[in-house]
What we know:
By secondary structure, chain A is mainly alpha-helical. In chain A, about 65% of the residues lie in helices and about 5% in strands.
Amino acid sequence: MDATAGSHARGGHSHPTPGIYFKVAIVLFLxxxxxxxTFEAGRGGLGPALRPLFEPIVVLVLVVFSGAxxxxxxxxxxxxxxxxxxxxxxxxxxxxxxxxxxxxxxxxFRYWREGVGP
Amino acid sequence: xxxxxxxxxxxxxxxxHPTATGIDSRKVAIWALIGSECLFFASLISTYLVYKxxxxxxxxxxxxxxxxxxxxxxxxxxVFEIPLVTAGTAVLLFxxxxxxxxxxxxxxxxxxxxxxxxTGTVLSGMFFVGMQVYEFTHFYHKGMGYGTNLFSSxxxxxxxxxxxxxxxxxxxxxxxxxxxxxGKLPPGKSLNLxxxxxxxxxxxxxxxxxxxxxxxxx
Lengths: 118, 218
């Protein structure tokens, strides 16, 4: 269903309907279930045959799925999809800084630990 | 709607006072708070990741290790109980769904919907906090105190701060629930719930990042 089609007008912006909220909740639940199943398969909990298939992709799957869940909650439940661009920027700008801080610290400490640095 | 009725119940998205942005200042403020909280949790998550796998003694999250339990060095198994935390995660995710339905009810003036879903949200939050208290107690009995090793210090700091945010959210939403039951949360004041809901969703998205990073990443 189109999000805007089922929305109600609210002074220049619209919020999704309960039906859309429910669909998002189901997708969030399924993504979490897939995350846990991938983790279990990757450590051999679902049988030794699956382990070599899933072990190399666990990190990638977790990053992609948790990123998708984050975006879904922000867009639909926090209403950033329909709310003012100012509010989206207030959230996105610190989020970018946060991501850069995490990446920079990980790179810095890896560099230091491996003894490549000064 | 008559002018008197319009004053008594103003539309829920119109600022009470004129603002330069046209957006209610309280909504801008909560988003600014959420932005600053992103940086706060980024520092805790990066600290956890930087020290991941650097503990010299157990217990460890997934693997067996040597640890001191009851004053004796012995072999300890991994401490994490993934099914329990997965259940807590699912409940927290659904609580975000519950609170948007409560907000929808508040905006539509549907009191039954507002009170019902808001009660569900508060109970879900309490379940999550209870799950975390049980988990921390369980870890303590397995010999993992705050200062046991690098893993325990970074783990308790990160998840403890998240748990305290959930607790604040539960208290905030429970206060609004009491107001709703007393009939003091009409559609004109639904922004009060929208602000609490935004905070609650933020607590949820932080857990969406923490859950795989801490519990599923080996």
